[in-house]
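WARN no homologs supplied; continuing
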Amino acid sequence: MTNSFADFDKAKMILVIGSNMTEAHPVAATFVKNAVNKGAEMIVVDPRRTDLVAFASTHVPLRAGSDIAFINGLMHVLIKENLYDKKYVDGCCTGFDAVKEKVMQYPPERAAEICGLDADLIYKVARQLASVKPAMLMYTLGITEHTCGVNNVLSCANLQMMLGNVGFECGGVNPLRGQNNVQGACDMGALPNVFPGYQKVGDPKAQEKFEKFWGAKLSDKPGLVMPHMMDGLVTGKIKAFYIFGENLANTEPDIRHVEHCLDSAEFLVCNDIFPTETTRFADVIFPAAAWSENDGTFTNSERRVNRVRTASTPPGEAKPNWWVFKELARRMGQSWASNSAQEIWDNELSVVAPNLCGVKYARLEGDGLQWPVPNLDHPGTCTLHKDGCFTCGQGRFMPVEWTPPAEVPDAEYPFTLSTGRRLYHYHTRTQTGRCQGLNDLLGEETADISPVDAQKMGIEHGEFIRVSSRRGTVTLKAKVTEQVPPGLVWMAFHFRETCANWLTNPVFDPISWTAEYKACAVRIEKL
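OK structure emitted
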């Protein structure tokens, strides 16, 4: 996030796109609702009529996978009607002419046809956004989980720069992370192309720096992305696989293919706090201490590094993850000096990562710190790119073309399946599935369909139906709801037998390698 959660309830204009906040991020959604109750305008862009729409002044029910066309249409209107922030664009940004040339190819009439909207709605939203400064833009996995996910994010950035909203309190581009500590994992270098602090592995200076600090020779080539690792298990290119805190057998698209990959591993290790569908494939399982049984840090969506302290003793032989890694290294002949999470942070991470140099455990009492924190006297950074001063100098407009999902409805599979999360369970229920109260609130998955489609097919609410894709079939109850538009089926991935990922398409964004969970073709059958 370029901005902070503290901005949410102070904002005057909020654009929420591809985010079912009330169920996926209910606390953050509360701040947004507070802003609306104080008089803020909110625009919700989502194929479904989610609960957040009740608080919005405008709902844009676009087709799944048409976000770029919609945003390009907005920018067309902003330029055509001279509503964009010309001073900001000229003084703080580069590449505007290329974006202008591209969005001129997306008049609202064309964009509306792609999105399944009325063109007047695109005009209305563009004028609405231009009427209040600054406006906050928030998105979640509804933007990133597409084959065009990176381009979706670039479109969001283009729009906010064109409106002059980046670098100011209550503005910016604000992704709400999909899982706990995703931000922190990326900060630590848990990506194939960067060292801790987002220093590129292909940068000779960064490579030299880490080789010297770690006392090891390092490759200058990015590592493998997860889909390539999984396929490598089948071909034999990958011999061993170490899975750390992930339930891949439920979370990855096309479960049957994923299980074939896991079963093909010559040697598979899991680190986890509970048995999962994935640990069934493991040759070795390291029992890990849970978050409440461990000292450490978490970094949330707003870049805030917070302390976590031990509240209870780890059961049995469960150990902190850092201890497991260190012991493995020791048995491989390596001697790592750090003996605690604090020592790892204070003596290593805050030394090698420029954006974290001012973060030490002693400074993390209370509310923690938001990076970048370049030195020990720095108070942290609430808003990135302050007053248009971008990290790279100027904001870079990047023209992007709309592309459809990899799989679209046809005669055999006439519906679009989109997936997400429900309020009462988290992810694959590794933790929440062990809570009786939550299972009482939501004990099974449903396939959410529109009343129009239900009537056409003679399907009653609560009746069992079959949902099939080119990859698999699940049988579950139909939930007939006005939240879902005709032509769309919506499901979550919390429950094993009715997991949406038996159906989802294993196709990926070519840059981020994020799977297209938000759109694939399915059919539904009345049983």
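The chain has four domains: 5-176, 178-222+288-376, 224-279, 415-526.
OK
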